[in-house]
């Protein structure tokens, strides 16, 4: 199998990326990779069309929603876009830091409202 994959690297890369772009497949693939049984989740979550944080569409490399999970417990939290997933990671999933960032932005908007539009 290793020899076959090496000989067909380009063809397999294209077919796998096309397969993973399908929203249903991508969601299940990401759930399985994180050790979450997709059959335990409701079909509504798997068919989510928008991010549960910003209500935006799927974005990022695969243009699919990401499976968000708690890094402490591994428990499933929801389906979110790449941008929100990256944001949570950068804020280390810490609500205190996120609230401080929101307060910072709100304070700046009050001081210079025209420059923040």
Q: What are the key terms here?
A:
single chain; 117 residues; mainly alpha; 2 strands; elongated
Q: Describe it for me?
A:
This protein is mainly α and 117 residues long. It is built from 6 helices and 2 strands; from the N terminus they run H-H-H-H-E-E-H-H. It has helices at residues 2-7, 9-21, 23-33, 43-46, 82-90, 95-111, and strands spanning 66-69, 76-80. A two-stranded antiparallel ribbon has the order 1-2. A hairpin with a 6-residue loop joins strand 1 (66-69) and strand 2 (76-80). The radius of gyration is 18 Å and the shape is elongated.
Brief write-up:
The chain is mostly helical and 117 residues long. It is 51% helix and 8% strand. It has helices at residues 2-7, 9-21, 23-33, 43-46, 82-90, 95-111; strands at 66-69, 76-80.
Q: How many angstroms separate the termini? A: 55 Å
Count of helical regions: 6
Proportion of helical residues: 40-55%
What strand order characterises the main sheet? Answer: 1-2
* Helix vs. strand class: mainly alpha
Rounded mean pLDDT is 79
Which helices and strands appear, and what pairs or packs with what?
Blueprint (H helix, E strand, L loop, with lengths): L1 H6 L1 H13 L1 H11 L9 H4 L19 E4 L6 E5 L1 H9 L4 H17 L6
Antiparallel strand pairs: 1-2
């Amino acid at each position: 199998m290793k020899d076959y994959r090496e000989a067909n690297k380009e063809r397999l890369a294209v077919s796998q990326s096309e397969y993973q772009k399908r929203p249903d497949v991508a969601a299940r693939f990401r759930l399985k990779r994180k050790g979450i049984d997709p059959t335990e989740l409701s079909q509504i979550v798997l068919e989510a069309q928008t991010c549960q944080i910003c209500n935006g569409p799927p974005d990022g490399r695969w243009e699919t929603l990401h499976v968000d999970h708690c890094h402490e417990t591994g428990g499933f939290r929801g389906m979110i876009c790449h941008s929100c997933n990256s944001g949570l990671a950068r804020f280390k999933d810490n609500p205190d830091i996120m609230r401080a960032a929101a307060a910072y932005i709100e304070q700046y908007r009050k001081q210079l409202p025209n420059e923040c539009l």
